[in-house]
Amino acid sequence: MTMHTDTRRIVITGVGLAAPNASNLQEYREKLLKGQSEITEIDLRYFGKAPAGICTFPETKYRKKKENKKGTRAGCIGVYCAHEALADAELDITGYDRAKIGVYIGLTEHGTVETENEVYNISQYEYNTAYWTHHHNPRTVLNNPAGEITLSLGITGPHYSIGAACAAGNASIIQAVQMMRLGEVDMALAGGISESTGSFGIFASFAAQNALGADEDPTRASKPFDKDRNGIVISEGGCIYVLEYLDKALERGAKIYGEIVGYAMNSDARDFVLPYGKRQAECMRLALERAGLEPTDIDLINTHATGTKQGDIEECKAVREVFANCSTTYVNNTKSIIGHAMGAAGVLELAGNLPSFEDNMIHPTINVDELDPECALDNLVINEAVEADSVKVILNNSFGMVGINSTVIVKKYEQS
Predict the structure, then answer these.
(1) How does 192-221 read in b/e, with b if 16+ C-beta sit within 10 Å?
(2) Taking the model in full, what pTM does it have?
């Protein structure tokens, strides 16, 4: 059988999000441009206090409290973001065959929160497993958040989660684009979700690695590129995009946020935790090649940098290697403002920069008091937003543990 490959152009027509400082794109963008962090301090069972990014959004806007209780925190975030994305796209999905809509959700991990909660619950009953909830299995299967979205929207096409560590958000976009190009689906909901702030184990593990960010002021705990950075600030959150074929989007007069023109994923094959700049550079080059672009064509690089010592340095090496002599390419970092939203990181960070196509503004990397010389990139936007002459192409990096790298390139849509 010959595999069908569709070369039609694919665009973003809707964005729905829940971030640690906003519950819609307009508010999110305004706070990013101001460098306004709302990272707070939480007190975790067994672990204690730590800075974290917590989302506040209308959790019962699209489903009842009873349904949220039956499902998961990740599912709750996902349902909200999916409905918001469709509303933003002004799209009634009855215009599509529901069996030809795909739902692809990136996750760093899933099931940890639910399992920790159940172990704690039965500890109150001398660890009698008769008190273990019958909801545990459907809550902890990896496809749960994507599945909860299909249940809410009545979508009967394929749904699954993309397990790609902290590269999962980008990976979900890539998967959706590939499935659309194969003709498997006609439209997709693609994005990422993090419920990681509900797990004391994740905090404890980063602390054991000496990689958990800390500061007396929690809004200053996430400080990529700063000389005194000391680790990651864990955040929850979600962001989902509506992806459509360009011709279909134009036919219905949709707003187009941008066109996905290039992407790549590869593996370090080197270490469980430590990143490798050489492979990251190769990933960016492959995405550029697939997009038919040169490094000088990129107007903005949104970095993955998480605030770990070696991680930030390795990515800066990679960026320097690929973008040497690119005098008009700006660089920024969103995690400095919202923390690290794990599986949602890549998509939330890209969403925060998409409005640059309209206003040419580059949001700042905050909390940089003394720039680490090894992270001194040309045109790194620090502490204050800047206005570029124009922003037409954005490159978005997301990397993850066990050596997984991803790059997505989005171009401003301009009618010819």
Answers:
(1) bbbbbbbbbbbbbebeeeebbbebeebbbb
(2) 0.96
